[in-house]
Amino acid sequence: MSMESEVHRPLADYSANIWEDILTHFSKSELETIDMLKEKHSTLKEAVTESFMASKENQIENIKFIDALCRLGISYHFEIDIIEQLGYAFNSLDFNQLIRHDECDLYTVGLLFQVFRQFGFKLSADVFEKFKGEDGKFKEHLVADASGILSLYEASQWNTRGEDIIDQALAFSSCHLKEILFQSIPQHLAVRIKNALKHPYHKGISRIETRKYISYYEAEEKRDAVLLEFAKIDFNMLQKLHRKELACVTRWYEAMEIKSKVTYTRHRVAEAYLWSIGAYFEPQYSQARVKTAIALIIFTMLDDTYDAYGTMEELEIFTDAIEKYSICKT
After folding, report:
1. pTM of structure
2. Does the keyword RNA-binding apply (predicted)?
3. What does the pLDDT look like over 232-250, one tens digit per residue?
4. CB 240 within 8 A of CB 220
């Protein structure tokens, strides 16, 4: 009997990999499809840019446009202009007074609050004071506005410590959103509310949240057809780039023969790549995504070595070797 067979190893019973090989390859036909989309993408971007610049004439509409760009996953094309315009509006006395005016409804104030805080501008929570009654509670008639309550709920996710009114807004909106789900509201709005209650969009993986919002926006009566088409094409082009990157990571994984040489580790290439997508999805970070995914695969192997293979004696030696290793040494 060999020495290896006498060693008791704490092998874990990991579930099988659920991803099919189709996710790890990228065909020439898909590359040709990208080339066909590029010209249309460029034309639509020009049109969206024109609409974005035109929206500057009305600061409220401008920020609503920015919100749509963010949720549709295309704000990265306009980052400099967005920061510029938000900074100008945030420092404008007239704009701050406009937000607090009675004509600015709950939906709008909630949306403005979200956008400003999302980009690092700490709009005061007192913009919601006008929606409270003499008893210090949010007015009950607001419940009739499903979109407004959803906007208030999403705004309350951007609270900071000590903002009591935002804490009240969260309790009020979350309670009533659950009730609104039993009312007669558009199907896409109901789905959006359910998803928001389960997981606020800005806390999710941006590509997944973008895909969801495209379907919500497509069902809206007042949707911008050009903006929607641009968002769809941009999403598809990025998705093809992401698939190409995943194929690259998979080829590295197969070339390293990890499945045959490190048999006890988890086969989680797609999951490792998804982590990198969650960190940054924009096209300019392509190399970073590939390297991050590879690093995560290596970390997974190390983790499994400790949890599902090495004995205590082996791991003490292994740990000592890792602690002594330094890439800075000459």
Report:
1. 0.88
2. no
3. 999 999 999 999 899 899 9
4. no
